[in-house]
Design goal:
By secondary structure, this protein is of the alpha+beta class. It is built from 18 helices and 17 strands. The strands form six sheets. It has a five-stranded mixed sheet with strand order 6-5-4-1-7. It has a three-stranded antiparallel sheet with strand order 9-10-12, covered by helices on one side. Helix 11 packs antiparallel against helix 13 and helix 14 packs antiparallel against helix 15. The longest helix has 23 residues.
C-alpha cells in the first residue's frame, strides 16, 4: 500500500487549523455575512491544455536511476519550507537542489516520495493544493492566493511534472504509519524529518544525499543548454557593468551589484550566488559580498558573478577589469600571469584526465611567476611541495558547476576531487593572485592588488569547450572590449 493510499484524499482527513490573524491588524474579525460573500462569485480558473515542463522526460530518467540504486526502500526528498527574514516577511524561496533535480518543481513545502513497488518504485509529488475558498484561506491567510499569488492545482501539477500529485498536508501522518526501510534527504523540512525520526538513520540518509550529488557530476544535454543560457546572460550582465562604471565611481560597488542583478532578474531567476563586486584592495578578499566600497579610476575591479536560470542552473564567471579602461604596467604583469595560469588549467581539462590536473597546471604557472618575481625562494618544485605559493593563490583552481554554484559538493572524494573527468562534466577554472594590503613580504606597489579570471568549462568527447568564451580574457582584448562598450 502506498502512502497516498493509506489516507484517502478527502477533506475529513485534514485537520482544520484556525487561520492566523495579525496581532495588530485593523480588522478584528470577519462577519458571517462577509465570510459567506467571499465564498461565492468566483470564476473557474483551472488551467487546461498544459504541457509538461521541458525537463520532464529527464527528471523521469533521474528518478528511475534513483529507484534502481535503492530497491525496496521508501525515498523521501523534500523541497523545503519558507524561512523567515524578519517578523512576518520571508526570504525568496528556492527549492532544494535534490528535489528540483528529480521533479522540475520549485514550490515550497513540496515532497517527492518514491514508494517501493515490485522491482521499482511509484512516485508521488506531495504539494499544497490551491488555497481553500470554503474556509477563507485564499484571502485571510498570509500565504493565501490573494496575498502571494495562485498555486497550481494538484491536477495541473500532474500535467506539468508528469507525476501523480497529492495533498502534502496529510503526508506527515502517513509517513508516521509507514513501514519498511526509509531514507530522507535531511536539512530541508523539519516536519517531514520529525515524522520519520524513528525510521531513518543518519548514515543511510547520507548515502542517499551522496548518491544524488554524484548523479549530477555528468550533465545531460538539457542541463548543458541551461548552463549556456546562464553564461550568455552573465556575459550581457558584465557588459552592462562596464557601460556604467562611471556611475559606479560616483556611488559605490553597490551600483555594480545592482546593475548585474537587474540582468539576472530580467533574464533569469536570480543571481546564482552573492555577487562579488570588489574594487581596489577589496579584490584581495575572496568572497567580498558587502559591495559597499568606493570604485576608483586606476584601481582594478574584480567582478565574480553569475546569472541563475529559471531552472536553477547558474553561471560562475570572473573578470578583473581596469576601472579606467587600461591596466597599469604592474597590473598587467600580474593579470597576464593569472591569464597564463588559466590557459594552462583549461588545457588540462580533457576526458580521462584526473580532476586535479587543471589545478596543478595552473598552480605551477603561478609558482613559477612568484619565483621569477623574487617573492618566494625557489626552486619551483620546492614551492609546490611545501605549498608556499598559497600565501598569494589561496584557493583551489575550480569546482563543479550546475544547479549549485559549488555543485555535487556531497559527492565522495574518490569520485570528485580524486576522480577522472568525463564528457558532460562542467567545472570552473579560476586561478588568482591576491596581494593583501598589509602583506609586508611583497613590494609596496603589489599590495592591494587582487586578480582572478574564471570561466565555465564543459568537458567534451575530444577536449573541452569554454562556455564563457564570448567574454574577453586576454588583457589587450579586455581593454579593447571595454573601450568599445564605453565608446
Amino acid at each position: 500500500m502506498t502512502v497516498a493510499e493509506e489516507l484517502p484524499e478527502t477533506p475529513e482527513t485534514l485537520e482544520e487549523e484556525p487561520i492566523k490573524q495579525r496581532k495588530n491588524g485593523l480588522y478584528p474579525g470577519v462577519s458571517d455575512e462577509l465570510a459567506e460573500n467571499m465564498k461565492n462569485g468566483w470564476a473557474d480558473t483551472e488551467l487546461h491544455g498544459l504541457e509538461p515542463v521541458p525537463q520532464a522526460a529527464r527528471t523521469a530518467a533521474r528518478r528511475a536511476a534513483l529507484s534502481a540504486r535503492f530497491p525496496g526502500e521508501r525515498l523521501v526528498v523534500p523541497a523545503g519550507n519558507l524561512k523567515t527574514r524578519s517578523n512576518d516577511t520571508d526570504y525568496p524561496f528556492r527549492a532544494s537542489v535534490e528535489y528540483a533535480y528529480l521533479t522540475g518543481n520549485q514550490t515550497e513545502d513540496g515532497v517527492l516520495v518514491l514508494e517501493p513497488e515490485g522491482e521499482g518504485h511509484t512516485a508521488t509529488l506531495y504539494l499544497l493544493p490551491r488555497s481553500d475558498r470554503e474556509n477563507g484561506e485564499f484571502w485571510l491567510d498570509g500565504q493565501g492566493e490573494l496575498w502571494v499569488g495562485r498555486r497550481h492545482s494538484l491536477a495541473e501539477s500532474e500535467k506539468l511534472y508528469g507525476i501523480p500529485a497529492s495533498d502534502v498536508r496529510k503526508l506527515p501522518d502517513a509517513l508516521r504509519e509507514a513501514t519498511g526501510p526509509v531514507r530522507v534527504v535531511r536539512g530541508y523540512d523539519a516536519g517531514i524529518e520529525a515524522a520519520l525520526t524513528d525510521k531513518v538513520t543518519a548514515e543511510r540518509d547520507e548515502e542517499l544525499r551522496v548518491f544524488l550529488s554524484e548523479m549530477r557530476l555528468v550533465k545531460d544535454d538539457f542541463e548543458i543548454g541551461e548552463l549556456q543560457k546562464a553564461v550568455d546572460s552573465t556575459v550581457r550582465g558584465f557588459e552592462d557593468v562596464v557601460k556604467v562604471l562611471d556611475k559606479a565611481e560616483a556611488t559605490s560597488e553597490r551600483y555594480i551589484e545592482g546593475t548585474f542583478f537587474l540582468r539576472a532578474r530580467v533574464e533569469g531567476n536570480d543571481v546564482g550566488y552573492g555577487s562579488i563586486c570588489a574594487a581596489g584592495p577589496h579584490a584581495t578578499t575572496l568572497h567580498w559580498v558587502r559591495n559597499d566600497g568606493p570604485v576608483r579610476s586606476g584601481d582594478l575591479l574584480l567582478l565574480d558573478a553569475g546569472v541563475e536560470t529559471h531552472t536553477y542552473y547558474t553561471a560562475d564567471v570572473t573578470r578583473t577589469l581596469p576601472i579606467s579602461g587600461r591596466y597599469s604596467e604592474l597590473q598587467k604583469k600580474i593579470y597576464d600571469a593569472v591569464y597564463d595560469a588559466q590557459e594552462a588549467g583549461i588545457a588540462a581539462v580533457q576526458p580521462g584526465a584526473k580532476y586535479r590536473d587543471f589545478h596543478d597546471a595552473a598552480q605551477r604557472v603561478l609558482a613559477e611567476r612568484l619565483v621569477e618575481w623574487g617573492l618566494v625562494e625557489g626552486p619551483v618544485e620546492r614551492v609546490l611541495e611545501l605549498g608556499l605559493q598559497r600565501r598569494w593563490t589561496l584557493h583551489g583552481t575550480g569546482h563543479m558547476l550546475g544547479m549549485d554554484v559549488h555543485d555535487c559538493a556531497a559527492a565522495r572524494t574518490e569520485t570528485y576531487v580524486e576522480g577522472t573527468l568525463e564528457p558532460g562534466m562542467v567545472l570552473t577554472v579560476e586561478p588568482g593572485l591576491y596581494f593583501q594590503a598589509d602583506d609586508l613580504t611583497v613590494p609596496e606597489e603589489y599590495r592591494g592588488i587582487g586578480v582572478r579570471i574564471e570561466d565555465d568549462i564543459l568537458v567534451t568527447e575530444d577536449g573541452n569547450r569554454n562556455l564563457s568564451a564570448a567574454l574577453p580574457r586576454r588583457s589587450d582584448e579586455v581593454e579593447a572590449w571595454m573601450a568599445s562598450l564605453k565608446g
